[in-house]
Design brief:
single chain, alpha+beta, seven-stranded mixed beta sheet, five-stranded mixed beta sheet, 10 helices, globular
């Protein structure tokens, strides 16, 4: 008996376009012999499935169902393919948890906490499993003083929206004069901002997921950007960034990253595929936490699909594993 799977895409944020690209990859790699896949695009204007006749069919939000040609369609599971709000920040997770529908990502609390970079940093720092860069958290509706911020932090610093992805609204600040324009830029994307000290080192990331209680770590990737940092342009413009999988780092460093990522996955109560990003500071042989991404990109050239292929797996096998694992709960 084929299972009905809702693939949710789109979302309300600037990552809408990336989310739609991820959904294309996911949809074409879900096994049609096992799953009936219904791609539902979520926007502020509505939640809609486009039928074979090209007509938009609205989701009944009371029970997350569709009515197609007079037949009601309910779902065995949801594959969440939305980056940003509401698919990565806990909102949809809470909705599906209340309805009792299994889904492929972390739960509501973990999703909400990891989505806010500042709160996530505070939690990770308290776990004492990895270094966390010194930072300041400011809000658009509360007063702040750039001189006080610079008294607490050493330049250069990164200024980024606390809740946002794809490096949208992010700046690297090298001088005191650059700080206020960077804050203004970030506040255009979010009402909260994280300002954190720059750590000079190698950016290394890994995807990981749990199956039958065992955490599987995908091959590590080192990110080498031709720009000053891995911003939106560097992420999504072909040729601007080298993404080397497996990462050409010393074995002991790779093992430290794998073990740290697994410990964070467990202690943050993660589920499904998660990508953990780190900076390895070679000068002092220290590992720093960057972020946990609970809905990593899934377009053909995204990091996790690269890592899946490097592990010798197909995306069809991988996505099927994620669905079957969430159905097992």
């Amino acid at each position: 008996m084929k299972k009905n799977i809702a693939l949710v895409a789109g979302g309300y944020s600037g990552e809408y376009v990336i989310s739609v690209q991820s959904a294309v990859t996911i949809e074409k790699n879900l096994d049609s012999s096992k799953y009936n896949v219904y791609k539902i695009v979520i926007t502020k204007e509505g939640w809609n499935y486009t039928g074979d006749d090209g007509q938009a069919i609205a989701v009944d939000k009371n029970d997350f169902s569709l009515t197609i040609k007079g037949q009601k369609v309910t779902f065995d599971a949801v594959f969440i393919g939305i980056h940003g709000t509401p698919g990565e920040d806990g909102r949809l997770q809470g909705y599906f948890e209340m309805l009792g529908i299994p889904f492929t990502s972390c739960g509501m609390v973990t999703s909400a906490m990891t989505f806010n970079k500042s709160y996530c940093n505070k939690v990770v720092a308290a776990l004492n499993v990895v270094n966390v860069s010194k930072s300041v958290h400011i809000f658009s509706n509360q007063p702040y003083d750039t001189k006080q911020i610079l008294a607490q932090l050493k330049l250069p610093v990164f200024v980024k929206p606390a809740e946002g992805g794809s490096s949208i609204g992010m700046s690297k600040v090298n001088t005191a004069e650059e700080l206020q324009p960077a804050i203004d830029k970030a506040f255009k994307e979010d009402v909260q901002i994280l300002i954190e000290e720059f750590i000079k080192g190698r950016e290394i990331t890994c995807g990981l997921y749990k199956v039958n209680g065992e955490i599987n770590v995908l091959p590590l990737t080192e990110i080498v950007s031709s720009k000053e940092f891995f911003d939106y342009e560097a992420k999504y413009t072909p040729g601007m960034t080298k993404e080397i999988t497996p990462a050409p780092a010393p074995d002991d460093v790779c093992e430290q990253i794998r073990n740290t990522a697994k410990e964070l996955y467990n202690k943050l109560n993660c589920k499904g595929i998660v990508r953990a990003d780190f900076i390895y500071e070679e000068a002092n042989n220290r590992l720093f936490f960057l972020e946990v991404n609970t809905m990593p990109g899934q377009s053909d050239n995204s990091l996790v699909p690269q890592q899946v292929r490097a592990a010798g797996k197909t995306l069809q096998e991988f996505y099927g594993t994620l669905i079957e694992e969430c159905l097992r709960k």
